[in-house]
Fold this protein.
Amino acid sequence: MALRAVTDGAVRELMAKLKQEMRVVAPHQREGREQWQFADVEDPAAVALRYTSTILPPKKYAFPTRETLVRYTMGEEFRAEPVVEAEPMALVGVHPCDIYGLQSLDIAMTDAHVDPNWVERRKGMRIIGVDCMPDDWCFCASMKTSTVSSGYDVFLTPINGWAEFVAESATPEGEAMLAMVNSREATSGDLAQVRAWQSDKVATQRERRINTDVNDLPLHFTGFSNSEVWQKWAAKCYSCGTCNTTCPTCFCFDVLDQIELSLDEGSRTRVWDGCMLEDFAVVAPAENFREERRDRIRHRFYRKYAYLFTRYGRPYCCGCGRCVRQCLAEIDPVTVLNELLAGARKEAKGHAL
Amino acid sequence: MLSRAGVSIRALEPDRSLYVPEPARVVRAEQMTATEKLLEVERLSGEPLGHEPGQFVQVFVPGIGEAPISISSAPGGRTSFDLCVRRVGTVTSALHRLEAGSVLGVRGPLGHGFPMDELKDRDVLVVGGGIGLVPLRGVVQAILAEREAYRRVIVFAGFKSPQEVLFRDELAEWAGRDDLEFHITIDRPHPEWDGHVGVITTLFPEVSLDAPRTKAVMCGPPIMYRFVLTECRLKGIADEDMILSLERRMRCGVGKCGHCQINNKYCCVDGPVFKYSELKFMWEAI
């Protein structure tokens, strides 16, 4: 780990240099809107290093919305071949929550069976993280994802009013990238700014907190299955799946078959799917294991804060706030979790009396 | 880039065949009932599947899609395996159109099957409701292949009507054996039926069980489990000795796609066979 200080100009120069070797993607502001999205870098000067959140998380580069898994020939002879498309890529400007999201999917995609498509895409990926200030929807402090200690090659924390960054390289690849541009040794004054930045980041979320330690959530969830809170929010939910598609830690998919017009070749393509959609748990002929909206909302929350938490050892929520930022019904995980916790505490008090 | 337990994702060399169906062909096809067809399948490689009873395969019909189908034959003895397919959706309808010689794809065997070793030296009660008998046929075949390893074996098979009885010849053979207690019932009286009538739970009073040494293995629709589990409990069988197979929408079959999740379990990799003791606090299970 080396701590250097680089200028904003040097970071943009680095993107220009990386572009000569590989695809470079970074956040860009949508014209005339307070919205950002990850997109291919054409002009490094147009990259928004200072932004709140992108519409979709960067997982789309390791887990595309549509991705061919298998190609096959049919007819007289059936033969199927894997399709694993991966290209070297630098992801620049990734926030800590999104780095946490990518790592969460690393765990899920390599547990028990290793997903070759995810791994090959991730192997070719260089990550340059950048720190941020939370907006009204972020809750990374509660999720303990406001800082990350791995999952990146280089991490940039803004200092001197975004004119410069303290750059920490965490891998040999990161070291090499940092060596491509001019930098200076980070001073103790720079590092003091980094620490201040990190504590400010937590401090801004003092009012927006989940009222328990995140590590206690699986235990709390053992008592939430019959809570009235599920029905309350189910009544507002449109079952549209936006929370699924914008979530950095969601990875459910469906696989569709496509055949060529010639009828002698075809492919199997995976597409994003979402557990909030009505037919997600349907089996033939017509049994739906989560037919009610209440069941699906409850399932999503349990998956995030209990099921996958106990399975993989971390919550499958990074506190990025995308789900509520884009939810038409404003279903806010912080509100829902606090209502669940308050309900359980009220009930516990009732028992004590 | 540490991702889990010190393993760097950059150091992994994944097996690329995870989602790739292996070519196989239908050796024999037999229409069993109006809606069920038996397909004997062999991989073109000629390699035995190496499965255990209760596991499943993802069956792929080129151009149509994949469906999880439980293997209905016991391992051993031959390189082929049996699939019994009920026609309910697109893929299963396509499977019904296949004949001997047709080519298809298979991925698997997948999931965990019935714990045959745990059944050894125990009395075994097998309870199959309708198409639920399909994975259990493999269990019974495996028991019969090594009959002396197990103690008393009782089989309950229930169907809606005489027309829906599966594996007729084989069941007749089981009924004639003296090392297996076979009971069959249909739900409602029928002019062509002179055997036991009533839902499958009405067979329980017919037998006395030595509960502490009995393991019950069962497969059937969710509604059947509710009642059969109760009967087993009334007989005194322990929760960890009730073993059942669940059905869910297993899309990828390898614990990724999320469709088959039952509370904190994935049906495809943690099951489809579970002990009731694992499921009893899971409200989505049964």
User: Anything to note?
Assistant: The two ends of chain B are 41 Å apart (CA to CA). The mean pLDDT of chain B is 94.
